[in-house]
Amino acid sequence: MVKNAILMGGIIALIAGVAIGIQSFLSGRAGVLIGPVKTGFWTNFLGGTLAGILILGLSTFVSPEFKSISLPAFFITLASGALGIIIIMGISFSISRAGVAAGLSAVIFGQFLFGVIADSIGLGGTQPIPLDLRRVVGLAVMALSVFLLLPRK
């Protein structure tokens, strides 16, 4: 059963990764058309509007539980949404200038870097995972891949 859960988690992560790639591509295109700042605000405004409509519909037709949120979860989600605006602006800016592969690889490197730091101090709610040479080399390889994917214009 555990292997099935791990496999399913991997498949869902892959699908989410493809969705991030598509969203990043679309944000880059929108950034060319209206600029990265407007792209960040409009993407999150329209996504939030859609989420609000879905919450209203689900809480009306499925379960009123869909509209409830605890105060701590509210503030965590608010901070996450604010970061989402910055993320979309950054992706829109970078992809419209460096290309999809270079922009996404830099974003992924940033995620790995944060992940290693978070693991090292136990930020994810688990026991800290020591920062060792193997993990540092992994980050260095990722940084090299970002460098190699940058356009040579």
Question: Would you write up a description of this structure?
Answer:
α1 (2-34) packs across α2 (36-61) and α4 (100-121) runs antiparallel to α5. The model has no long low-confidence stretch (mean pLDDT 92). With 153 residues, the protein is mainly α. It has helices at 2-34, 36-61, 71-98, 100-121, 133-149.
Largest sheet, if any?
none
Unreliable segments of 5+ consecutive residues: none
Estimated structural class: mainly alpha
Total helix count? 5
Helix content: over 70%
Number of strands: 0
End-to-end gap: 50 Å
Using only CA atoms, what is the Rg? 18 Å
Q: Tell me what portion of residues adopts beta-strand conformation.
A: under 5%
From N to C, what is the helix and strand string?
A: HHHHH
Mean pLDDT: 92
- Assembly type of the chains comes to single chain
Shape: globular
What features would you highlight for this structure?
globular, 153 residues, 0% strand, mainly alpha, 82% helix
